[in-house]
Write a structure and sequence with these properties.
heterodimer, A: 605 residues, 8-stranded antiparallel β-sheet, 2% helix, B: mainly beta, 4-stranded antiparallel β-sheet, globular
């Protein structure tokens, strides 16, 4: 069961592990980038008003210089400081930003903030553009929307590249930080300079949602630093189209790892072994020989054997190497007579190796009949990409993945579906009395009937119900798309008893619960433009205190909206009350006290 | 011309063959598969017949469908209307006063169509209970009592490290709850482990459980207020206010060891103790804790199901055949329906169980009689596997109008049993006591998953008496044992028309031996002298090495697999509940090791199979070796 469920977890989330050993641009000043016209600067905190189109307000405001109510509101404002790269172009100053350093294969991640209507782009190697654009609310994203691989404008058929739209549009509203993660492979060339492999995005995620998966980019996109393809090129961020802010820029240079196994010899013993030492000490192999490749297939049985491989491992640079050995049964790995690990089904370990030849010994033994025999060895280093050292058939890729059960919400009426929800993706915070509501607008939410609260909102497809409906299932679904968890708790104090929900003529639910005898009704629906969700709480009696939001940070903006968390989403009160920002332990809460209802507010993310 | 003649005579021969063929279930009850629109997946969790004859059913996917003309009258294809959707893995559906009620995982919900468009617009929470979020926390029901109050039952969760141990992490897991129409909940009874099968019989609430920890075998229990039906997980909450249960979990576990074992810092799964002296049984435990309620009828595991489900009384007044007033019990794993007849002895229900109808396309979970007396069957196996290969199904069982020759019922008598047949018996066969065989046995009450059959002993049949009308036979048994399951087998009995009994095995759970007059010795017919078989001393099998066990052919092994119920879960080539024999062969167990595994299975060796195998020490060593040798013969050598 656990094994099967593990397969579902990969749909959302960053590619874990890669962010280790990354270098972060300090952004204390503009070092690391070529000189530019002055439209780029390093600042402290950036605020962008999502209601103001950047084109209408071409000047940014430095906040401390502006007295309250003095100047008209601006799309972009900032404070002095470091850590954030801000571009604000004008007619005269509109340079692209080009790094002084170059890269080939790279893992990178950054956070980007765009004002309303803005446009920028991240050029990998200065040649392959991942679009940065205010695509908030776009239902069917194109190559020209945020995360899209941009096209070029060549007319010759063999030079023309039409770009590639992202798999989804997880764009956040203007003024919010958006997280982009890309695993990129540079094009490869032979000795004569002929390209033998296209540039490739292995994975790209925007706001945790997969937008490209193993996509080749055959040609440079529009507006490159130079219209050619090379092994190494700089990072370029487009600066001439519109304002953009960037922070937490982290990267790790990668390259193909040159490692090979040589002089492999094997011995096979048909006995039951409990330890690797027993295999080593066994007398008289039943089979022996040499092999060009590392494979368990030299064993002619599927259980009750010990297999010893010895040989040489050739590496072409000094580095810290990581070994991952996967197998059905037990195994031990030694390099230069030093034990890396011994264990069950999977072992890994790290060893510093110098350039050259090293002894390798693999002992694989198996007495557990229900596991399939297999043996796979992968080597990687801090900057060396993982390389499989086994024969393909010795450790074939997992092909037993389950066909997913994806639920759409594209009908005339909302799709309602109850399921467990792991709040924040955390099984330890599983909510058990929750219902997902999907709208054809692509604005979806989970309501917790147990606490009378809105647990999360998301944009995109509805839910993946595979965890609930495949096999025995575990009762839970996973929201698809760009999700924002709100808070896990109840908005009112006291005992809450759910009375269920009623559907209106459009099939939208009104949730009803009682709290100490007071009946409270709760309704959530998209705004007229299908951009945000509006929540309306009503009761025939005044509610003593009502907690709209709880978060690490709540900022009131000049326009009256509230910025929640680390500029993660907005809340705007629509029903006239004045909420207070209260301290609740180490968090802040947005609370309305002693109010008559309705309490009506929007959530924008 | 010659060929025509040949054809005619061929048909005659064929007709003759058919005429003499053994009767089969399908001669009397036929399964009709109902056409379902292609995009609808009916993993049925609940089913109810509406007053206007439509069938409402709820599914794992959370939909409630209402099906018009499911009888396919006038050759029509049934029409499906979506009444409600979005429920959390609904596992029950009941109609009451213009509303449908369904147990979702976390609550009992009332579904109402207030605007008359045929779709529910009110999803009212009648009562919500807490959950920990464990996958096994299923909730079933409701069944509606005469006063409109509703019974709901709840599964236990399993441990994290001790994944084999049923546990009640939050209140009312492992309980039966009684919930009033206005949402008042009364904790009614506990001891439930996996109470998927529930039913009302004459206004009384019954439930079926499945074999598992503390549940030696499946069975059906009469659940009165304050009953404790055996699984101790729910006792965790017996000290809560308003519970009718006195015994608390601490007292229970200090009396009966739950066998929490730790070795090398790891929990160890308790296994059946072979050759255990004086093992605990439920009736012995009942001497200490009087709240323990014994099953009214044991449904011997692997013979009469492996995962019992819906309990439904036949109230069709003959529309469904000759078993009116009796009770049908479904089974998910074996995809079949059993038949039970209850009687009250000393104020408590007990009774007899038979096989009834097998070969449904998936696991039988829910049943409901249609207006025409046919039985609608809602099916799913939800990842547990089932004898029927499909994952879900909606079928209908129709009586053909022919009465099968069956034991209609078996009643307990002070000196044995009275079998009533559906048709008069052939007197010669019926009055011969040699044509009745049987055994009695019971189960352990322990924290191990399931129990082997224990203390089994052949029935000593003293004699029989056939009634004048040939419909009833008194079977006088010398060694009746209170609380034991008594298997009564009628292999040699023929009807007056010469037919054998369609399902010749009855299993009577003798919780009480009725008082009253016994038959006189002189009234009994004895075995005819001519049929007295010269008894020879049984040949003791010589001890043999693994390699020297003669391998039986498929035909020869079949009766052994049948007798020892192996084929309830295993087939030669295909996966049903357990692995195919061919897969087992691939494991290269020695014959001796395989016999060990028959006696003490290690389900952890088969992580892709959901239902663990129960220990089968009742299989004789000799037969186990033959079975093992046959299984190993299926291995294709490398």
């Amino acid at each position: 069961m656990k094994k099967v469920l593990g397969l579902y977890l990969t749909m959302i989330g960053s590619f874990s592990g890669i962010s280790q050993d990354m270098t972060q641009l300090p952004l204390k000043d503009m070092s690391g980038f070529n000189n530019q016209a002055g439209n780029w600067q390093v600042v402290g905190e950036v605020m962008m008003d999502p209601t103001i189109d950047v084109h209408d307000h071409p000047e940014p405001t430095e906040k401390k210089k502006r007295k309250k109510n003095e100047a008209p509101p601006q799309a972009v404002s900032f404070t002095e400081g470091t850590g954030v790269l801000l571009n604000f172009p004008n007619e005269n100053q509109k340079s692209n930003l080009v790094s002084t350093w170059t890269h080939g294969d790279i893992e990178l991640e950054l956070e980007v903030m765009l004002p309303k209507g803005s446009n920028s782009g991240l050029y990998l190697q200065g040649r392959y553009e991942v679009q940065l654009y205010d695509s908030w609310g776009v239902k069917t994203p194109k190559f020209s929307d945020i995360g899209g691989i941009y096209r070029n404008w060549e007319s010759a058929p063999d030079k023309s590249y039409m770009g590639k739209a992202p798999l989804a549009n997880p764009a956040k509203a203007p003024g919010l930080w958006q997280r982009l993660e890309i695993s990129f492979r540079a094009p490869k060339f032979d000795d004569s300079g002929k390209k033998i492999a296209n540039a490739r995005i292995v994975k790209a995620y925007l706001n945790g949602v997969l937008i490209h998966d193993n996509i080749e980019i055959p040609l440079p996109t529009g507006g490159p630093v130079e219209n050619n393809e090379v092994e190494e090129g700089p990072i370029m961020i487009q600066g001439d189209h519109g304002a953009v802010a960037i922070r937490n820029f982290k990267y790790k240079m990668m390259h193909d790892l040159n490692a090979e196994l040589q002089d492999l010899a094997y011995e096979v013993y048909y006995q039951d072994f409990q330890t690797a030492d027993q295999v080593i000490n066994a007398a008289g192999p039943d089979l022996e020989g040499t092999s060009d490749q590392l494979t368990y297939e030299v064993v002619k049985r599927d259980n009750g054997f010990g297999l010893v491989y010895t040989g040489k491992l050739q590496v072409d640079e000094d580095a810290k190497y990581t070994f991952n050995l996967n197998f059905g049964g037990s195994a031990r790995l030694k390099i230069d007579d030093e034990e890396i690990a011994e264990g069950w089904r999977s072992i890994s370990g790290v060893k510093d190796l110098t350039k050259g030849e090293h002894d390798i010994e693999i002992i694989y033994y198996k007495t557990t009949s229900w596991i399939d025999a297999n043996l796979g060895l992968t080597i990687s280093s801090t900057n060396g990409l993982p390389k499989e050292l086994n024969a393909f058939s010795s450790f074939p890729p997992n092909t037993s993945a389950v066909s997913p059960i994806l639920i759409k919400a594209d009908g005339d009426q909302p799709r309602l579906l109850r399921a467990f929800l792991d709040y924040g993706g955390d099984r330890g915070q599983r909510l058990t009395h929750t219902i997902g509501v999907g709208e054809s607008s692509g604005l979806n939410y989970v309501y917790d009937l147990g606490s009378g609260n809105l647990a999360c909102v998301w944009k995109g497809d509805f839910v993946n119900a595979t965890p609930m409906w495949h096999d025995r299932g575990d009762g839970s679904f996973k929201p698809l798309g760009m999700i924002q968890y709100l808070y896990n708790g109840a908005p009112v104090e006291g005992k809450i008893i759910s009375n269920g929900y009623k559907l209106d003529e459009n099939g939208r639910p009104t949730f009803v619960y009682t709290r100490d005898g007071i009946e409270i009704r709760d309704k959530v629906y998209p705004d007229a433009n299908d951009l945000k969700l509006i929540r309306e709480v009503s009761s025939d009696t005044a509610i003593p205190t009502y907690k709209l939001i709880e978060s690490s940070r709540i900022q009131r903006m000049d326009n009256g909206m509230y910025l929640i968390g680390d500029k993660a989403y907005y809340v705007e009160l629509l029903s006239g009350q004045t909420p207070e920002i209260k301290n609740t332990g180490n968090k802040k809460a947005l609370v309305i006290s002693g109010s008559t209802t309705p309490i009506k507010y929007s959530i924008t993310w | 011309m010659n060929s025509l003649k040949y054809l005619i005579s061929f048909c005659l021969v064929l007709g003759l063959v058919v005429g003499f063929a053994q009767p089969i279930e399908e001669d009397y009850y036929q399964i009709v598969t109902i056409p379902v629109p292609e995009d609808i997946l009916l993993e049925v969790g609940g089913m109810s017949t509406l007053p206007d004859g439509r069938i409402a059913l709820s599914t794992r996917r959370g939909d409630v469908w209402v099906i018009e003309n499911p009888y396919m009258a006038n050759g029509a294809v049934p029409k499906f209307t979506l009444f409600a959707s979005g429920l959390h893995e609904s596992l029950g559906l009941a109609y009451y006063q213009n509303a449908l009620y369904s147990a979702q995982r976390g609550e009992l919900t009332k579904l109402q169509d207030t605007n008359g468009d045929g779709r529910a617009d009110v999803y009212e929470t009648v009562y919500a209970w807490p959950l920990s979020g464990h996958y096994h926390e299923y909730s079933y029901g409701p069944k509606i009592a005469q006063d409109g109050s509703m019974f709901v039952t709840t599964n236990v969760a399993f441990g994290e490290e001790e994944w084999w141990r049923g546990e009640s992490r939050v209140p009312w897991r492992g309980w039966t709850l009684k919930i009033s129409q206005d949402g008042e909940m009364t904790p009614w009874a506990t001891g439930m482990r996996s109470p998927c099968g529930i039913g009302m019989i004459d206004g009384e609430f019954f439930y079926a459980d499945n074999q598992g920890d503390w549940i030696g075998s499946g069975g059906i229990w009469h659940v009165e207020q304050g009953a404790f039906t055996g699984h101790p997980a729910g006792l965790k909450w017996s000290d809560e206010p308003n519970t009718p249960i006195e015994v608390n979990q601490e007292t229970f576990y200090s009396t009966f060891d739950e066998r929490r074992i730790r070795e090398n810092g790891r929990a160890v799964k308790p296994v059946n103790i072979q050759n255990e002296e004086n093992p605990l049984t439920m009736e012995k435990a009942q001497e200490t804790f009087s709240e323990i309620t014994l099953p009214a009828v044991w449904l011997p595991h692997a013979i009469l199901g492996i995962s019992n489900s819906e309990i439904l009384k036949d109230e069709t007044s003959g529309g469904f055949g000759p078993f009116s007033g009796q009770v049908f019990v479904g089974d998910q794993g074996q995809s079949k329906i059993m038949r039970v007849d209850l009687e009250k002895v000393d104020g408590k229900f007990q009774g007899v169980a038979f096989d009834f109808k097998e070969n449904f396309q998936s696991g039988v979970l829910r049943m409901s009689f249609g207006k025409d007396g046919s039985l609608f069957v809602g099916e799913t196996n939800r990842g547990w596997g089932s004898a029927g290969p499909a994952n879900s199904g909606f079928e209908r069982l129709v009586w053909t109008g022919k009465v099968p020759f069956e034991m209609k019922t078996v009643k307990a008598k002070p000196d044995g049993f009275e079998i009533e047949f559906t048709k008069p018996v052939d007197l010669e066969s019926a009055k011969n006591p040699n044509n009745y065989t049987g055994q009695s046995f019971t189960y352990k009450y322990h924290s191990v998953y399931g129990s082997p059959v224990i203390n089994n002993e052949p029935l000593k049949i003293k004699g029989v008496k056939v009634s004048e009308d040939g419909l009833k036979v008194r079977v006088v048994v010398e060694n009746l044992r209170q609380y034991y399951v008594h298997e009564i087998n009628t292999p040699g009995i023929k009807s007056m028309g010469g037919l054998p009994v369609l399902h010749p095995r009855a299993y009577y759970t003798l919780n009480s031996i009725p008082k009253g007059e016994k038959l006189l010795e002189s009234e009994l017919s004895k075995a005819p002298k001519t049929s007295a078989v010269k008894k020879t001393a049984p040949v003791k099998p010589k001890p043999q090495l693994s390699s020297r066990v003669a391998v039986l052919s498929d035909d020869e092994i079949k009766p052994l697999l049948q007798k020892n119920t192996c084929n309830a879960c295993h087939k030669k080539n295909i996966k049903i509940v357990g692995p195919p024999f061919k897969e087992i062969a691939k494991r290269r167990y020695s014959n001796e090791r395989m016999v060990e595994l028959i006696y003490s299975p290690e389900p952890e060796n088969w992580p892709n199979y959901a239902t663990p195998m129960a220990p089968m020490p009742q299989v004789s060593k000799d037969e186990a070796m033959k079975i093992a040798a046959w299984i190993n013969s299926l291995r294709e050598e490398d």
